[in-house]
């Protein structure tokens, strides 16, 4: 979701949209690469369908057709919609965490890290709207065994951002308040944007993210 600071997102984008040329020779490594490539194609097609007709309106036949596969072949790569949904959740929360960790490791200050959260979400909404809708709307459809690891990763990420908010307050770059509530207000500004942000009509995600960040940081009261 960010421009200069979203290295992990850019990496994910290259991975998801990697070229699909056929390898010249086969072998264990090639087979693994082909399987991963095919899964990425299935994931992309399924995410578009989820965004267009909703998770519950999509069946495996539709996913197979979107991926250019026969339905029996699809099951060679994916066990069902639940696995696809789990992969979408892992990709989203994994990208957010990877980007935040990278900023922290680079020595970015607390405000830069928090701004990066807003940028990341808008960038992902712009680039992968179907993925984001599935993440925010269909967590409860995951199998309970798959819900647990995703919930744990979400909680870890939220806890990390709360700690960054607390650090900013300690440093005096934002006024002291409830760190947990402040973090959730930050998430509320960017996470709900998938409902109203139109990737192909509204300004670039970096532009919208900057405006939302300024509203969050400076508030609405005249000064």
Strand and helix layout:
Elements lengths: L6 H10 L11 H26 L6 H8 L3 H7 L3 H25 L4 H18 L1 H9 L6 H28 L7 H13 L13 H14 L5
Helix pairs in contact: 1-5, 2-3, 2-7, 5-6, 5-7, 5-8, 6-7, 6-8, 6-9, 6-10, 8-9, 9-10
Describe the structure.
- Residues 1-25 have low confidence and may be disordered.
- This protein has ten helices and no strands.
- It is an all-alpha fold.
- Helix content is 71%, strand content 0%.
Key structural traits:
single chain, 10 helices, elongated, Tetracycline Repressor, domain 2, mainly alpha, 223 residues, 71% helix
Summarize the structure.
This protein is mostly helical and 223 residues long. Helix content is 71%, strand content 0%.
Strand proportion, as a percent range, falls in: under 5%
CATH topology (fold) name: Tetracycline Repressor, domain 2
- CATH class category: Mainly Alpha
Shape: elongated
Report how far apart the termini are.
Answer: 30 Å
Rg over CA atoms, rounded to whole Å, is 19 Å
Order of helices and strands: HHHHHHHHHH
The chain-level structural class is mainly alpha
